[in-house]
Structure formats: structure tokens, C-alpha cells
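WARN retry 2 of 3 for item q-0093 after timeout on previous attempt; input resubmitted unchanged.
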Amino acid sequence: MPGFLRVSITLACALFGMLLVVAGAAQESAETGAQGSTRPITHEQSSDIIARVGDQPITLTQIDIMLNSTAMIGMSIPPPGTPERNRFRLTLLDKIISANLLYLDALDKGVDRTPVYQYDVEQHTESTLVKMYRKKILIGDIPISDEEIMDYYDKHVDKEKTPFTKDVGMAIEASLRNKEYQARLASLRDRLREGSQVVIDEGQLDPAQDGNRDDAAVVARVDQVAITWGEARPVLATSKETGTLEGRVAALNDDIDRRLMLQKARAAGLENDPGFQERLNEFRKVHLINMHRARLAGELEPTDDEIRAYFKEHRDRIVIPEARKIQMVVMPAKEDAEKVKQQIESGEITIYEAARDNSIDPNAKKTLGEMGWVEQGTGFPELDALTFSLSLNELGGPVESPAGWHLVKILEIRKAAFTDISQADTWRKTRRMMIKERMDEYTADLRKNRYKVEVYNDVLNRLLEEEAGQAPEQPAAAPPKEQGAS
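OK item q-0093 returned
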């Protein structure tokens, strides 16, 4: 299967609701300023807009950042300028359009006003601000000078055994930076709490007194601001050592650090940081889509009878047939094949030697007869019948096909899967397929009847042609058909 198809199928199944952000990049660093789905489009980027869903613009840059991010999670992607890459882009574009349709539908249905959504956004906001304050202010940049690197090399490295190279310098720099990072980490709490007064009442944290403690009991104070047992209990419940006084004190100290970092992050104006705002907007949009999609999936849940009927009707799409990895020798005549088979079975030659020296398959000298995986029902009937009647490592034949007389050896067997709807994995797969199909129908209706979708074919083709170095009269690819509100 071509690389772009493997990626398209995987993304279609696993990332449908998250195709509006750069997987990983936007989540790892609020400072990078990577192009996001909700980021305002600047004048310089306006020529990069290739589609709109309602008031939501989609740029080719956005698609390419997402496309390149698939390499970060181990997926192969076609190289720039190839038709395969362009087809992959169009697959992503179609998915982004569907996700934007769900986003607009979620807004219209007020999903963003639900308490659960607002709570999740608040938690994400606080968590991101804490991480930013810790990284940017408490830890900060850790520059390592050339002088420090050479000083370390002169004092700690045997020059005769390890001459100084660029790689050695980079290794020393990384080591020095990590050492300084650990030092800053060790003093983080002291620096964070400078100027603040923190008092923890360990008597109010004693597990032996839990049954007698009121929620209003004060367990700690930070600059005279009280933290009650009712506030602390959910935090302590997440600690692995919540049953010990030491574990509770440690967990409460961590929570106090978090409170102080959040307070100081806001005082430092980090909420106004463009990177933070972009990251928050991306989270709002993606999380809203995922929540709405989950709610819709519940509404589109099929009945047991519908699942059974769907499996019966679409069995050929659900069942994965048995497959076998085979090695083959192809001879021009039956007598030749029988002779070679006898030589292999007697140990006079191996099947690898037989394929290399005797097979009329033009690729045999290179492949030594290994044909890879074949599925049942995909070959010549007689050859297929032989292949799927043999046991593992068994040599069979000869059998005739239009290509010649075949000897076949079974190297591996992959059993058929999802063959019985009464099995849990088959049931889950069938159910997922049904819900996805209904979800696709739902978004198709949004596209047709609710929200205007525009695809700027001329802009898209121009940008693809420029990348591939094609002449203007040679279209790069056919984009998705434009549809608007009816």
C-alpha cells in the first residue's frame, strides 16, 4: 500500500476530530507561534487561503504543517512535489472541512456553554500558564558559552583518546545544560516562594483524624489565604501516598507551588502572550469538536439488531481474509517442476537455490522466490486452492497457471480476522464503522444544507504547481468539489 494511503487511512480513523491543529507541535510549545486553525490570518497569509467553511479559513500552510507532523509520529509521507503528496493533502483538506463543519455546528448548539466544556478550558488554561511560568521564568534559557565547553573539555576529557570534534562539543554542551537545569530545578521551590509565607498544619492532615475533620478546617495558609480540607482533599486523593502524612504534605506542597505559579504567571501577563492565546484558541476549538463528536456518536449509536444486519450486508468490508506469505518456483513444464521439487525434498538443493537458478519468474534471482503476502481468493483459482490447502513450511505443487507450473512453500500464515459478529472485536469494529458512516452522513448534510463551503481551486492548483515546478497549463490535482449552503 502506498505511503500516502497508509497515512490517509490512519488519520481518517484516528485523528478525525483533531485535524485542525498541528499534532504535537502546538501542544509542546506555546512560544513557537506555529500556524493554528484558529489563528487570525494575516495579510501575508491571505494568498495561502485555499478554502473556507463559514467564517473559518483553511490555508495550505496549515495542511502542510499537519502533514509534516505525521512524520513525527512514525508515518511515512510522500515527498514534496509528487502527485501522491497532493492527493494526501486533498484527503487532509476534506477532513479539515468536515471538522470545521462540526465546530460550527457545536457553536450553534451551545456545546461551548456547557459546564463540562468550560471547566475543561479553565483547567487547560491554568495548566498551560503554570507550565509556561515554570519554563520561561523559573527555569528560563540556559545558555552555554564556548568558553565553558572548552573549559570542561580541558579539565575532564582525555585529549589523546577523545580529540575535540563538533559532536564532542555538542555532547559537552548538552551535559552542562542538563546539569544547570537540574540545579535550577532543585532550587525551584525556594525561588518560587521568595516573598511568600507558606504554613502547613500537619495536624489537620493526619489520616487518623479524617473521620472527625470538617471540610472547612484550614490545612494550610499561603500569604494568609486559607486552604481548607474540602479544597485540599481532591488534590490529595491523586497522590500515590495519600494514606500517609508525608505523602499528603508532599502533595499539598506541590499544589501550593502550582497555585503560586498560576498567580505569578497571571501577574506577569503571560495570559496575554500571543503563543499562549494561540495555544488556548487551538485547544478550545479542537476540544469543542471532540466533545461534540462524542455527543453525536452517542446519538448515532446503532441498536444490536442494526449492528448484526450491517455486518451481514457489509461482511466483505469487515472481514480480513486469511493471508499467507509464500515462496514460489515457476517452471516452464510440469516435468521440470516435479524434478525440481524432488531435488528440494531430498535436500539436494534449497528452494532459494531452485528459485534463483531455475525459476522462469524474471524477478526470481533478486527475490529468491519470495512473493510476500497473498490473500485467499486473489490469485488464479488452481494456484489459490493449492496455496491455502498447504500447512506451514509445506512445499506443494506443481500446479499450472497461465504463467507456468508452480511450486509453492508456505513461510507464514496470518489467520482470517473479524469473521464472527458474536466475537467482541468484530462487534466493536462493525459498530465503529456504522457510527463513522452515520457521522459522515451527518457532516455531509451540514455541508449541503447548513454551512457554506468554498474551495478556491485556482489558488490551490497554483500553489501546488509552484511547488512542483509545473507549467500553469498542467493542473496539479483535482480538489474537492465546491459545495455551498442550499
